[in-house]
Amino acid sequence: MAAAIDVVAEKGLRGVTYRAIAGRARVNHTLVTHHFGSIEGLLAATMEWAIERSIRESGLERITDFDEAFADSLIASASREPELQLFQFEMLLESRRSTEMRSLVEKLYSSYMSTVEQALKDKGLDTANEAAIAIFAALDGLMLQFLTISEPAKIRAALIHIGHLVSAIPPLRRHEDI
Fold first, then answer.
1. pTM of the entire predicted model
2. pLDDT tens digits, residue range 101-117?
3. 133-162 per-residue burial string, b: 16 or more CB within 10 A, e: under 16
4. C-alpha distances in Å from residue 60, one per residue of 15, 53, 57, 114
5. How far is CA 148 from each of CA 71, 82, 92, rounded to the nearest angstrom?
């Protein structure tokens, strides 16, 4: 799956073949075919793995901290493994052209959104106002900018600024408050 991420990040989805993946992984291409059954199966498994790894490596569950440490952690994560993020963005773009990829991308966003929403709830913040969607959209856009334009200081400052916006989210209303 790491080989699939590397190939997609380097060549895009159009460069994904059994031979390209097997060559990068240094295994026989029939092993890839046998294990995953199809390119779609390989991409689906890789997407699940990439999502879990990306959430874990980025520290996304600490999103409500939004301090310098969180910003530095997120930038360091994207710097260490840009291929991981590039793979996900390639899948996102392909979902516009391929209905098969659409469900994989919906799962991608669902996983990220659930993580952000849970972090906000754990902090006692109200997520009914769609704050999780707005926050994740900002992070998503900033990571795309980081991978393409790569202005770490500006991205870091924007991440910290999002923290100020998060602090303005109203607290979760409890039943006894109503």
1. 0.81
2. 888 888 888 888 888 88
3. eebbeebbebbeebbeeeeeeebbebbeeb
4. 30, 11, 8, 11
5. 18, 10, 15
